[in-house]
Amino acid sequence: MKKKLILVTNDDGIFAPGLKALVSVAKKHGKVIVIAPNSPQSGMGHAITINKPLRIHKVDVFKDVEAYECSGTPVDCVKLAKNVVLKNQKIDLCLSGINHGSNASINILYSGTMSAAMEAAIEGTPSIGFSLSDFSFNADFSAGSSFISSIIKNILKHGIPNSNLLNVNIPKLPKSKIKGIKICRQAEGSWVEEFKEAIDPRNEKYYWLTGKFANNDPGKDTDLYALDRGYISIVPSGHDLTAYKSIEALHFLENIKK
Amino acid sequence: MKKKLILVTNDDGIFAPGLKALVSVAKKHGKVIVIAPNSPQSGMGHAITINKPLRIHKVDVFKDVEAYECSGTPVDCVKLAKNVVLKNQKIDLCLSGINHGSNASINILYSGTMSAAMEAAIEGTPSIGFSLSDFSFNADFSAGSSFISSIIKNILKHGIPNSNLLNVNIPKLPKSKIKGIKICRQAEGSWVEEFKEAIDPRNEKYYWLTGKFANNDPGKDTDLYALDRGYISIVPSGHDLTAYKSIEALHFLENIKK
């Protein structure tokens, strides 16, 4: 049987330990190709590069795995993978991560890791973004690895029914404390932000984004609820942002005339 | 009665003619504050700046309107507006655009203009992104201006029921040819992409993104269908990406054990 073709990317960059951890699990399930940014791209969301050229270079970072670094965003990586490196070969699965830090709740919107997976999903490829609720560079990615392996195996076999994208978040816990997996909806949350105001060495004022994430959702079926209780959360996700419940209520705007 | 506070931003930058056109309409409806990027930020999606400081400067670009340029992304502009410039005053409405180029269908995901409006919507502010289906710098923004004014007036009065965000796209037509407004869902579409491959002056290969947009949606209730027939499309939009139809079908993944 032909090996499955698995594209792996991330937003923390080609040298991130989380990417290395994901590649080592992914290669048990098929032929892996890695195309990842050459610098950290956290918070890049669904950004694409349109006003300047992109570069890709083959790099020898992973044992026995073909890998490329790219000068663009995570979404650029997926576009270049499809159109240039793999020249429109069928990709069986796209994996993104393992992200250093949670992408639960609305963080799916800010995350380059999740946007890369979403880009592949828009193109028809089943895609999974994995994130660990630990921002540190040397986070322990081993605790969730047997779950990640089982999720990959199941999705390669069954696909993702009625969707093309999974947002998988893993709590920061030792393996013995992870209780299992919950299928969830995206929690309603928001960032309570502050900008640190300071003066630079040239005497100019600057602002630096900082903030705390707030869970505003009382539901027991959310990703944040599951993570708080020691479960891995999986939110099946899409790219249709239509607020269907608003359509009927807005028909009065069709009465506006010239 | 206290004047409504209206925040205006965009992704084409503080000097874009589309922003000027939107400010001139918006100021008929309240007190306008402009905070826009100091350089073009098309295709920035929901990117935020976390690894470097941001700068804002007051600028005298619009007659009688307080305006600031910001070194960050469109979403950064909205965050700085709320937290620094307006210091958590209640914003009655956020307007973004008028974008030079369509943001219909899945382009809501790539667009900095729509992501800025979405950021304000996540924060609880009713928000509208306006885009004209014309990428040129000197596009004619006057044809849709009476519709834009009426939409702003109506939303200030009634709010956006069951949502907080409208994606408004205006066809490239003279005013006499615009047929009216349609409330729509987001069309399923995709970019058929190519990368132009070339060699730079230092003999290094580079790739430059290019492509054509394809409407893959046969529906007659979509934004692309309405725009093609001479209507302004309005898609009420949200930020919950959960694919609810997948949740039940994925419960088998909860059986994965350590």
Shape of chain A: globular
Q: Please report the total strand number of chain A as a whole number.
A: 11
Strand numbers in spatial order across the main sheet of chain A: 3-4-2-1-5-6-7-11-8
Percent strand of chain A: 25-35%
Summing up helix and strand content along with how strands pair, one would put the structural category of chain A as alpha/beta
Helix count of chain A equals 7
Write down the overall mean pLDDT of chain A: 96
Helix and strand sequence of chain A: EHEEEHEHHEHEEEEHEH
User: What is the percent of helical residues of chain A?
Assistant: 10-25%
* Number of domains as seen in the coordinates of chain A: 1
3D structure, described in words:
The structure is a homodimer of 258-residue chains. The mean pLDDT of chain A is 96. Chain A has one domain (5-187, 220-255): 3-Layer(aba) Sandwich (Stationary-phase Survival Protein Sure Homolog, Chain: A). In chain A, the strands form 2 sheets. Chain A has a 9-stranded mixed β-sheet with strand order 3-4-2-1-5-6-7-11-8, with helices on both faces. Chain A has a two-stranded antiparallel sheet with strand order 9-10. With 258 residues, chain A is an alpha/beta fold. Chain A is built from 7 helices and 11 strands. Chain A has helices spanning 17-26, 74-85, 107-110, 112-122, 145-158, 223-228, 244-247; strands at residues 5-9, 31-37, 56-59, 66-70, 93-100, 127-132, 165-170, 180-183, 189-199, 205-215, 231-237. At the A-B interface, helix 2, helix 3, helix 4, helix 5 and strand 7 of A face helix 2, helix 3, helix 4, helix 5 and strand 7 of B.
